[in-house]
Predict the structure.
Amino acid sequence: MNFDPMTPIWLQVATRLKQQVATGALRPGAKLPGGRDLALQFGINPNTAARIYQELEREGVCDTRRGLGTFVTDREDRILALREEMALQALRRFMTDLSGLGMGAGDAIQLIQKEENTK
Amino acid sequence: MITSKQLTRKFGSKTAVDRVDLTLEPGHVYAMLGPNGSGKTTWMKMAAGLMKPTGGEILYDGQPVGISSRRFVAYMSTEPYFYNWMTVGDVGKYYQDFFEDFSMEKFERLLQHMELETGMKTRTLSSGMMAKLKIAVTMARDAKVYMLDEPFNGIDLLARDEIRRCILEEAKPEKVLILSSHLVEEMEAVADRAVFIRQGKLIEVRDLEEMRERDGVSMADRYREIYGHVEG
């Protein structure tokens, strides 16, 4: 994974893992690698890796069971909510870009329809 | 774990390390940064017990660095230091004789990852292969402190991933790793703290993730801010 060195590394990896949970690439209840393995897998500092799991736990995306490891949440409602959160974030980025071009929500809807029709 | 107090080293009238107060804690990977001649190598040689300070002191777990601390410190210098009649395997045996914490098994595993073979003659190695051999033989020790001077120099892009992995494997809560390199970008994700040195003086020690989070600044950005307009 290529990192943007100006953005916290933990945030970039956490976002990647959340995407995988939201899309189901990481299955509900799946066991995640331990902190050290996560560090090696992504080529990051182990302290950064530990921070990633802390944040994902805080957000309810995964939970750590003492002595067993860290697992993706198996709560379907949490995963659905996560997908919606991530979609909203993508939408906000898109709206910000459009507003930079002087366009609003109405223009966006028209554009989406036009784009869909050309497919 | 390693504490330098007002540490100073003079060479004639030139002061290579100038009253440096610095504490390195276990569980961290430090990137040691500064332009050529800023004193990084001199500081590391004193921490490794290979050079005596001319002022101040350097302590390992509260005791002055010396013969007894040397066995806890694995230091990789920039200079080549193998006899040219040696094979890659001989280098391992040589280290095994010198260091109790050297693991031949780990050495052989690292050689395999780095595509080196025990039968190769060191004098026929390319500079990149030599650089990899130096890393492998240093990291095959089970030391408390690892100091690597320019670990990415002369190493191609693909092998750098392997070097990073090899370094990260030893990044454990009870150990300290210190990397000095001009290739700042190579260390962004591996290190968690940066030590900035200029003209022998300590400028600052920063937590990298905190710097990114609070100021939106990378280690390379900070490097440019500190050294850019001075050394050009």
About this structure: Chain B has a mean pLDDT of 93.
